[in-house]
Design goal:
Largest sheet: 10 strands, mixed
Helix content: 40-55%
Strand content: 15-25%
CATH architecture of the largest domain: 3-Layer(aba) Sandwich
Number of helices: 12
C-alpha cells in the first residue's frame, strides 16, 4: 500500500506520459510468425506480408522471422506456440481451421488456449477444375454430384475447416451424405499441385489462390462462395447463388499469440496492428488477394470468436462432422 501511494504521489509531479511509459511493453527479441501450412499457402503469404510491412515501415525495431511448421492440421504450429506462455514475441497466423480442428476432433487446442490479437480480413472461397474437365460450371458440378456423389473427388486444405464445409454442402445440395464423400485433405501448396495434376477432380480453396492458375490456363474456376460477384480479376467468375446453389461462406485471416499475454503486451499489438492495416503495402496485399478488409482488435476479435465458434459448430454438426 505504501509503495502504491508513493508512486501515485510521485506521478502527480511528473508528466502523465512518463508514468504511463513505465507500464508499456515492446519487443526486446526477434518476433517469430508461426505458419501452420507450407510456403505458398494463403496463411504463409499473410505472414510474409506482415513481415514485409513491418520491415519496410520500421515499426518494429527487432528482426521479424516467418517460420513454417506444416502438417498435423496446424497442430504442430500450435504446439510450438503453446510452449511460450506470456511471451508476446510469438505470433500465429490463423484461419477458421483453428476453430474447426477442435470441433471435429482433429485438434487438441481451442481458441481459448491462446490470446486472440486481431482479425485481419476475410476472403471468399471457390471451386476449380482442370480446363479439360467436363465440369465447367457450378451447375455442372451439382449435376455430376447428383449422378454419384461418392466417386467425384474434391481436394481441400485442412480437414474439417471451411473448405471442408463448402465441399460437404455441395454434396448435401446434390442429395448425398457428406460423410461418405471423397473429400481429400492436403497440406499447403500440395492442394494446388493435386488440382493442376489431376490427382483430384476438383479443388476447394481461397479464390485468390486459384486466380494465377486460371490466368495461366491451368485451372478453370467454377464459382465463388460470395453473395454477389467479386470485383477486379474475379469479376467474370459467377457465384454459386447465380447457379442455383445457396452457398455463401467466408474464410478469415487472423493473428493469435501465446496464452497469458499481459494487458501491456496486448495494448502494444493493438496499436501496431491498427496502424499496420492502414499501411499502403498492406492495403495493396489485401486488394491483390481479393480480401474484404475488416480489422478487429484483440477484445473485439475475442467476442467475434465466441459467435464464430457457435456458427461453425452448428454447420459442422449439420454435416455430421462435429465431434466436440
Amino acid at each position: 500500500m505504501k509503495q502504491s501511494i508513493t508512486r501515485a504521489f510521485f506521478c502527480t509531479f511528473i508528466s502523465a506520459s512518463a508514468c504511463g511509459n513505465a507500464q508499456t511493453w515492446k519487443p526486446e527479441k526477434n518476433i517469430e510468425i508461426i505458419i501452420g501450412l507450407s510456403a505458398g499457402s494463403s496463411q504463409d503469404r499473410t505472414g510474409r506480408s506482415l513481415q514485409k510491412v513491418w520491415q519496410e515501415t520500421k515499426t518494429i525495431s527487432v528482426p521479424v522471422n516467418v517460420v513454417n511448421r506444416p502438417s498435423g492440421g496446424g497442430q504442430i504450429a500450435l504446439t510450438a506456440l503453446s510452449q511460450h506462455p506470456g511471451d508476446g514475441h510469438y505470433l500465429y497466423v490463423s484461419s477458421p481451421t483453428f476453430l474447426t480442428g477442435y470441433i471435429t476432433g482433429l485438434g487438441k487446442f481451442q481458441f481459448t488456449d491462446f490470446t486472440p490479437l486481431a482479425l485481419l480480413g476475410k476472403q471468399y472461397l471457390a471451386v476449380a477444375t482442370r480446363p479439360e474437365s467436363a465440369v465447367k460450371t457450378g451447375r455442372d458440378l451439382l449435376e455430376r454430384l447428383k449422378r454419384d456423389p461418392y466417386t467425384y473427388s474434391m481436394g481441400i486444405n485442412g480437414a474439417g475447416g471451411t473448405l471442408n464445409i463448402v465441399a460437404g454442402l455441395l454434396v448435401r445440395a446434390a442429395g448425398g451424405d457428406p460423410k461418405k464423400a471423397r473429400i481429400i485433405a492436403f497440406t499447403g501448396a500440395e492442394l494446388m499441385t493435386a488440382g493442376i495434376g489431376g490427382h483430384v477432380d476438383a479443388i476447394v480453396t481461397v479464390a485468390s489462390n486459384i486466380l494465377p492458375h486460371v490466368e495461366s490456363g491451368k485451372l478453370n474456376m467454377l464459382a465463388v462462395t460470395a453473395p454477389k460477384r467479386l470485383g477486379g480479376a474475379l469479376a467474370p467468375v459467377p457465384t454459386f447463388k447465380e447457379q442455383g446453389v445457396d452457398l455463401v461462406l467466408q474464410n478469415w485471416a487472423a493473428l493469435f499469440s501465446a496464452k497469458g499475454l499481459s494487458a501491456q503486451q496486448i495494448a502494444y499489438w493493438d496499436g501496431l496492428l491498427a496502424s499496420t492495416v492502414n499501411a499502403p503495402a498492406w492495403k495493396a496485399f489485401v486488394e491483390s488477394n481479393q480480401w474484404e478488409p475488416e480489422y478487429l482488435n484483440s477484445a473485439a476479435f475475442r467476442t467475434y470468436l465466441v459467435a464464430e465458434d457457435k456458427r461453425l459448430r452448428a454447420a459442422l454438426a449439420d454435416l455430421g462432422l462435429a465431434r466436440q
